[in-house]
Design a protein that fits this description.
Helix content is about 55%, strand content about 5%. It is mainly alpha-helical. The chain has one domain. The N and C termini lie far apart (about 55 Å).
């Protein structure tokens, strides 16, 4: 059974070791993100001991978009190799900036809510919202 500390760990946005171990097992000890495959060819590399823990959907966006569940739960955890984690972090920074600039644009919040309702997989939700925000940016520029 999963044990949780009496102190909330949400302030630092960390994962429980139990969840990390389970995710490592689920990922078969491999980095499965699209950036891992891009860096290392067709075959995802083994993670060994140098993997990094990553939120699929950044906690700031998880809370802003009112996604159900725990931003630090296993469903929002992925294990990446360091290079893939760096690239993913750069993309997250872009996504957060796009959201901040376009959250007041008419229709954007409703479309984001549609992505959240449509997909249970957070990776698909993230990709859907990225497309919406990039479209909103293009419309503003025209």
């Amino acid at each position: 059974m999963k044990q949780k500390n009496s102190k909330s760990n949400c302030l630092r946005d960390e994962f429980f070791q139990f969840d990390v171990n389970e995710k490592y097992r689920q990922q078969d000890g491999k980095c499965i993100h699209k950036y891992c495959k891009k860096i290392n060819g067709k075959h995802p590399p083994p993670l060994y001991l140098d993997f990094e823990k990553d939120h699929i959907l950044a906690p700031k966006l998880y809370r802003a978009w009112r996604v159900k569940g725990d931003p630090n739960g296993i469903e929002n955890l992925q294990l990446l190799d360091p290079n893939a984690h760096y690239l993913k972090t750069m993309e997250d920074t872009k996504l957060i900036a796009l959201f901040e600039r376009n959250k007041g644009t008419p229709g954007v919040k409703g479309k984001i809510k549609g992505c959240i309702m449509r997909y249970t997989d957070l990776t698909k939700t993230r990709e859907c919202t990225l497309k919406i925000l990039e479209d909103a940016k293009r419309k503003k520029q025209n």
